[in-house]
Each structure stands twice: as C-alpha cells, then as structure tokens.
Amino acid sequence: MSPEIAQPGDALIVVDVQNDFLPGGTLAVPRGDEVIAPLNAYLRQFEQRHLPVFVTRDWHPPQHCSFREQGGPWPPHCIAGTPGAEFARGLRVPAGAHVVSKATGARADAYSGFQGTDLAAQLRGLGVTRVVVGGLATDYCVRATVLDALAAGFGAVVLSDAVRAVELRPGDASQALADMKAQGAQIAGRAAASLSSSA
Ligand SMILES: [Zn+2]
Known about the structure:
Elements: E1 10-15, H1 36-48, E2 53-58, E3 98-102, H2 119-125, E4 130-136, H3 138-151, E5 155-164, H4 172-182, E6 186-188, H5 192-198
Parallel strand pairs: 1-2, 1-4, 2-3, 4-5, 5-6
Helix pairs in contact: 3-4
Bound molecules: zinc ion (ZN).
C-alpha cells in the first residue's frame, strides 16, 4: 500500500511516464517501469478525493535541439505523435487529467513541467497550494519540476517510491533528492524512511 498523501489543496503531477523513458525505449530510465504500480495507487487516491491530476510529457518535434544529431545530449525520444511519446500503457491516467506537453518547439528543451507551459497558472486557477510529484526521472525532469514548483511558491512532496533515476553518474539520484529537500521539498513514500536515514 502506498501511504496516504493526498490532502485538500494538493495536485498530483505525474512526470513523463512515456514509453521512450521505459525499458525498451530510446532513452530508457533503468527500472523506470517500476514507477507505474505505485503511481496508479496515488492516481486512485487523488481521483477518489476529487483532487486534480496533471500528467506531463516530453512532446518534441523530430529535429529537437536536445537530440544528438542537433548537438544535444540525448538520443531522439518522445517525438510528438509517435508510440514512444505515448504514456505507458499500464499507467491509469484518469479521464479528467490535465495533460501538459513540454519542449514542443525545436529550439528549446524543458526538463520542468513548468518551463514554457501554463502549469503554474492552471494550478493556481484550481486553488492548488501543494504539488505531489512522481515519475521520471528523479535526477532530471522530476528534480526540475519540483524545484520550479517551489520557486513558484507551491509546497512540494516527492514520492520516493514512485520515481526512478537515470544516474549517468552514480549518486545523481540521492543528490537530486538532497537538492529538492534543501529547497523545501518533503520526501514521502514507502522508501522515504531509508532514504532520509542514509542522507
Ligand atoms: Zn526530452
């Protein structure tokens, strides 16, 4: 069982749980598929309490600046309209979820769901004061989304049992969690106790 997190004023943000970021995808996050089951439990929790749910996605044009052929750091991934850009099949995205597409233009990348989108305005419009964040990847888009949420004045909770990291360098995941915590994020979820005792 995932812990009870959802409170009035909360929104759940599911970050980039797309096929290309899962094992078998072009930019697979190791064990990225392990976020799906806990996220489904959190999605159910938010739905049952009639709290808003946002799902972000990379939604790139074919010549996106983050791709290696254009001089970027990553292999091509999440090209808009392709199967790789679809949400993971097992992810139970509720019918009323708000989909946030990011880095949709060729010349700018966006790790954060807030960057170049109206996410902050949508959250404020719904009276959201705290965001609860899970998804992929801990050390990139989850980190950036959480830090932007805090900078925009929202509270933020990181679901440690529903995130996985790229870890290009060993330690990137724990560093990302430490960065988010240092800026005021709460680390929650089933693995939180062991994470905080080792930090
Ligand atoms: Zn991308």
